């Protein structure tokens, strides 16, 4: 029987641009509009300096003008690359036109937001100077031109005539870039270093934004710009190089992270960086439990609290009921060991549960921990934790005579208290990353993944599911306790209200779980990026604190709809959540005549 039907999707249906324009005219419009938007950034956007950023200066862009300038340059480069200009063709190894559209959307969104913010804060469009109108019109022209460019991929044959929304979404897709030719090792290492250097600059700029209007514009441009770079294939090329030189990439990332506190002149911004590392480290520990082993833990923040309380009790604080002072290394071991013990004690009787039942039990543990810390106040129970007042006045750490609470001069740059704790937490993060990476690549890590995918099948293959789940629970708890020991000293005090399931101020279990899901379960960089975003955005946009949980919910809904595998996904998740055209079951084709090895039954 001839089975020649091909059940895979074949993309052969021609696709037309959203706005029907000749290709040459569309690209010329994009280039001209981007150039006009760029020129407008050198003109005054408003007449008064009451709007943050002082946009009244001609010839010197500032604040939101800088963002429009950067976006216009990026759009120009992508658009000119489409002409095949030598020296620019390397910018678009993947998509040729979708990066142009995304960059133009970023410029239009940033410029439009700036004009709207100026009008809203100063009382009308009359407060806009000609420079703002020039950049706004230029951004609109560039967007119209980008919408007239041909799409990079034809439509799927199964849906040759999508609606307008489908056409817009399809215009933002791009093919995978072809494999690049190998370069000398020194050149590839330089590219990796440059990539991490750009990442450090963008991250430092985002943390260093001094007012909410600039930070919102930064988020708009960064979101569209990052997606444009991804569609262009540059991120794929960089990922290939980092996979090829993995140790060099890890070292470059570590060096870039070390340089961060030296780029900050405000101690508050360095403190934000330290807190981001604390919560990113805890999210990595949760990633062992959720991302690798597939155990839904809704009370994970309690392990952070156990480590913090254990370190506070042995820190030498005057309010400590124990009245001892351990050196730092002993306090770290105490916090990690206490969290590990609690992880084993809680996990042993509960890990035989699965799914929602396990989630409810862990949620209860998190609340029991907070209530217990409240009740150990000398009235409702023994006087151990000072009740709701917590343990304040935790002294700064001193490691080998180096007092982390005092500023120090390093290579002519003053390293503040927050910078000191940032570097200490960076060392802890590096240790946690190493533990996570080694665990994930080990036999135990593969067994965790097997349990996550199908525990029944894993058990049938001889895997001791309970023992390995308990090991994951204990390892994740100890990593959270490690971060908790540093958090206690950074914040000077620990109180029960810091460790809730959900709240407007991180850390909380909902925040940590959202960081893992948003970043990408089972990856290393995913929870780091997710924790950075979820901590940085509320810290910069404090006027949105009341709506934080609502915004988290909306963000997760959008993520589940458009990118369920997270911002950073491994290959397994990409294959699981997206159609690849590959058949789940190989097509049953008859053997050719004359083939050998066929049994009598015809199998």
Automatic annotation (TrEMBL):
GO MF term list: branched-chain amino acid transmembrane transporter activity
Cell membrane is among the record's keywords: yes
Keywords: Cell membrane, Membrane, Transmembrane, Transmembrane helix
Membrane topology: Multi-pass membrane protein
UniProt keyword Nucleotide-binding, yes or no: no
Localization per Swiss-Prot or TrEMBL: Cell membrane
Primary location class: membrane
TM annotation in the entry: 28-47, 67-88, 100-119, 131-151, 189-208, 214-235, 247-263, 269-291, 298-316, 328-348, 355-373, 419-436, 470-490, 510-537
GO CC annotation: plasma membrane
Basic and acidic residues bias spans: 579-591
Annotated spans, Disordered: 579-603
Classification via Pfam families: BPD_transp_2 (PF02653)
Protein name: Branched-chain amino acid ABC transporter permease
